[in-house]
């Protein structure tokens, strides 16, 4: 049972870190390309594209972190 708890904790932490770091990466990429959602006023097209970068970063970061966490949580003989 303790092994299950450790695995679940690792997957949860990986999800959280992947989500946050992915969002930051998406925001940074959006800013680099001129689509800053956070630092500009209003809700125009550029801001919405910036938001899409953030959301995609969240999803991709979580997916990547979970994939990496699964390599560490597989049962080994």
Question: Could you explain how this protein is built, in words?
Answer:
By secondary structure, the chain is an all-alpha fold. The chain has one domain. It contains two helices and no strands. It has helices at residues 2-32, 45-73. The model has no long low-confidence stretch (mean pLDDT 88).
Describe the secondary structure blueprint for this structure.
Elements: H1 2-32, H2 45-73
Helix pairs in contact: 1-2
Describe the structure using short key phrases.
elongated; 2 helices; 77 residues; mainly alpha
SS class: mainly alpha
**Total number of domains:** 1
Enumerate the spans where pLDDT stays under 50 for 5 or more consecutive residues.
Answer: none
Write down the Rg.
16 Å
Short description:
The chain has 77 residues and is mainly α.
